[in-house]
Write a structure and sequence with these properties.
- The protein starts with a strand and ends with a helix.
- α2 packs across α6.
- The chain is mostly helical.
- The chain has 2 domains: 111 residues, Winged helix-like DNA-binding domain superfamily/Winged helix DNA-binding domain (Arc Repressor Mutant, subunit A); 70 residues, no CATH class.
- The protein is built from 8 helices and 4 strands; from the N terminus they run βααααβββαααα.
Length: 204
């Protein structure tokens, strides 16, 4: 999602297209969790064939977004395992350069993954397993300056989350401690002032 970092002077249109197809967004998001194979990723996607996943993986490799790191033998079959070259982000200028018709499918893909994982956490009884977890919903009204202030606050928060992730990996290598699998979701978005459900109730 959009991050306000200094943008590169040139944004490669081909690379941008490679990263912004909804299926590729999902592949990059899954690989952001750790190395994975096309077959295992395909099982997490709805109505997407293994051939299609493999095609988009080849495109991401071609553009240097991901790389093959090893081959594994599972049940007599060879699986190719890939990882991201770098954590996928769009900064503000890159997001602005994305075709407006593609932005909503990309957002919908990410939100679907958030919904799926939240539902899985609830179903597994893990969401409230810890009492120091966090869940908040904050209705606010902002002017232009206030909106930018929130963007900056969330960027700092995201940076802190990723630093904690990196430090945890370093400590685990030394201690052998098993790391907890977790998700941190940060969202900021506009909403219409009137909830259409209220209007429908009045009209009914």
């Amino acid at each position: 999602m959009p991050k306000r970092h200094p943008a590169p002077k040139l944004i490669d249109p081909q690379l941008l297209r490679a990263e912004t197809h909804p299926i590729r967004v999902q592949i990059l998001s899954i690989l952001g969790e750790g190395p994975n194979s096309p077959a295992r990723m395909q099982r997490r996607m709805e109505n997407v064939s293994l051939n299609l996943v493999s095609y988009h993986i080849k495109e991401l490799v071609k553009f240097g977004c991901i790389e093959l790191i090893r081959k594994e033998t599972r049940n007599g079959a060879t699986e190719h395992v890939y990882r991201t070259v770098q954590r996928p982000f769009f900064d503000a200028d890159q997001w602005e350069a994305v075709d407006p018709n593609l932005r909503q499918p990309i957002t919908a893909t990410i939100l679907q993954m958030v919904s799926d994982e939240t539902g899985r956490s609830l179903a597994e009884g893990r969401f409230d397993e810890r009492t120091d977890n966090h869940l908040s919903r904050s209705p606010v009204e902002l002017d232009e300056e206030g909106w930018k202030e929130v963007v900056d606050v969330l960027e700092v928060a995201l940076g802190g989350v990723l630093e904690a992730h990196a430090r945890s990996a370093e400590r685990a290598q030394l201690s052998g401690e098993e790391r907890m699998v977790a998700r941190v979701v940060i969202m900021q978005y506009l909403l219409g002032r009137e909830d259409p459900r209220e209007r429908e109730a009045e009209e009914g």
